[in-house]
Amino acid sequence: MLHKFILIVACLALFASCASRASSIAPASVSALEYKELSCAETKGLLKDKRESERALTQKQNNAATGDAVGVFFVLLPVGSIFGADVSGELAEVKGEVNALERAIAQNCS
User: Among 5, 85, 95, 102, which is disulfide-ready with 80 (CB 3.0 to 4.6 Å)?
Assistant: First the structure.
């Protein structure tokens, strides 16, 4: 009976509030019109900066997901999420901005 209880608790902890891998986070909706006033060079520069931010946040998010998996395995707690390592909201926003800037380049650099 105790083994079943421990197994059930472990399974629940495994699926409760664990950080997602970066690849499973959808981009937020950002309009390319927000960047229509930028020059071509400004748009390309901002896109470069946002891509660097996206890479950094992707690494942080994947580390949080790994930390959660390890934490759940060893102590039954999503350690990465508990200590604020989950940056899924920021990553979704930056992914949306990158997509919008890629669309804005077509408009601003023609």
Answer: 85
Nearest to 38 by CA among 48, 28, 29: 48
Whole-model pTM: value is 0.75
Decide if 32 contacts 100 (C-beta within 8 A).
yes
- Nearest CA to 45 among 96, 2, 110, 109? 109
Q: Please, what is the average pLDDT of the chain? A: 82
What is the C-alpha separation between 2 and 25, in angstroms, rounded? 37
End-to-end CA distance of the chain: 69
Q: Which two tokens stand for residue 87?
A: 């940056």
The band of 65, judged by pLDDT with boundaries at 50, 70 and 90, is confident
Angle at 30 between CA 29 and CA 36, to 5 degrees: 155
Contact present, 58 and 91 (Cβ < 8 Å)? yes
**How far is the C-alpha of 53 from the C-alpha of 91, rounded, in Å?**
8
